[in-house]
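TICKET #2291
ISSUE: user wants both folds in one file
ATTACHMENT 1:
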Amino acid sequence: CSPGGDALPLQCHPTSSKEAVPSFSPPVCQPSRLSAIPHLRPAKVCQAGDAYVREKFKPQARRDLEKEKQRLQNILATGKDVEEPKVKQTLVQTKEDEIAEPDRFEELVNEVQERKEFLAEMEALGQGKKYQRIVLTEISQKMREMEIIDKKRSEEMREMMTKDTTGGNKFN
């Protein structure tokens, strides 16, 4: 407020021909002016938008129903759940057999696929908009890392090819 108690002007004319340099100081404290008329939208305008539209539920099977049927048949026939211990043993054996270290590029491909599947599940549950930005950002980061790995591999291949061709000429 000015010393006389009046409000400051909303627009000022520049006093010099130079352009004003924006300063990063906090804004001047001005009392907020609220209008007497509330800014409410009519119900028809609200209903015309997509605020009241629900996304349709799209169920997805989260488990293998055939496997569940076989398990239930075993329980009813023998009174025991026989199949579970066998499954656990096979999983342990496959982990021991997998000694070779997986390639980072393949890991990234798998991670991108997992994120796509997660996003599809969230969209099916009606939560796609909530996770879309996060998941797409992660996917783009993985893709960038894949591009870097691909460039390094191609450079290594070029170096190997040039060494092979120059080395072959020396021996001829």
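ATTACHMENT 2:
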Amino acid sequence: AGRCPKPLKNRDVVTLRSWHVQDGYHAIINFSVKHPKYPPRKDLVRAVSLLTGYLVHSTGPSSCRLTYLAQVDPKGSLPKWVVNKASQYLAP
């Protein structure tokens, strides 16, 4: 769960993480799932992680290239400036 500034409602997200390693690549992928232990709560807006993850590619014995992707729907009504500001802090 994450806190939002008032008057916005706080959000939460339930994700499943999976990873795969092959030929110098490491992929870590997250996406939203429904889970019986964590049903939606009335005091939170359930955000959806469509696809979020990292791709790490080895470029040498002590170096790599990191690619990060975040495709998230925060749901509800959020002003564009809030989404843009949050992406500067939450994504990295």
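RESOLUTION: both attachments delivered.
EXTRA DETAIL ON ATTACHMENT 2: The beta strands are 11-12, 15-22, 25-32, 45-46, 48-60, 63-73.
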